[in-house]
Model the fold of this input.
Amino acid sequence: MRPLPRLQDLPPKWARFCLGVRAFVTRELACDFTSQPCIVACSGGADSTALLLLSTLLCRKNGGQVIAVHLDHCLREDSAQDACFVARLCENWNIPLILQRENVQAQAQSKGLGLEEAGRLARYELLERVRRETASQYILLGHQLNDLAEDQLLRLMRGVGWPALGGMAGQDPARGLVRPLLLTPRAQLEEFLKAAGLAWRVDQSNFEGATTRNRVRLDLLPVLLRENPAYLDAAARLWRQARVDEDHWDSETARMLSGLPESARGDAALLPTRVLEQSPAPLRLRLYKAVLERLGPGQPLSDSLFRLDELWREHATGKKVRFPGDKEARLTKAGIAMQVIDRKKECG
Done:
């Protein structure tokens, strides 16, 4: 296994590639992991191996520090070989490594979860624990542009609305998650590793059609790429447009909510008529959703939000719309009153 090169030792094309990823993170995600302690989730696959190489080069150039984390899910006979590959890589590049084994199948059965969900929860729990223990600021994830395109298609299939249809976020400040490679195609990452003389591990389960995500990857996305070879570029544009719209509407929603009267009860709120009258339909729908989510668990469904807005436009005073989490929105002359219903009292 080759020693870690310096950024300036790379061919100019790949040095510019690394700097381009940093520019994406600093300009579009508004953070710079390269001068901070950060964690890299590394499975040993092409995406995460490229991320480990790239982030280490950038961090060592700019004063940051990388800690690698690998979780062996124990789902495949050769999973231990993935762990050994990552361990050799980190030893060769002098990168601290946290390696953990989890019987994800047993966890899935005990918690009543699917394997994919159980594995995801186990990974994020480990990453967050290491982040706290090492006082690291960021957790870097290897999701790339093909993953983003697949995520957009999965969201479309589930009926997700705009702007969430644009796909996964580039960062989650609350959890310190950052996806530096999100607008980088998988093929470019593999080319980068080949240029650096590096191999990577291949998870054969990714080529089985057992999960919806795999079927999207293996069957649906290739069809779209044949019909439009620039489809990944379109996915990147969709993501950027969604982020612009999301930032705008989040700002507008927060501004309107900041002017609402405080409720003495945490399980009730009022959207005043004056606020609704000065809000266009896209903003009203977001206000409904935001206020309902403040009342507790239970995700408001789009059909119910549209129904509520239709009733408001019809001035249907007295009408009610129910939402998940035992929440109710009732139209009054003062506005839309929202509250959590006590089922015991309701049933007498």
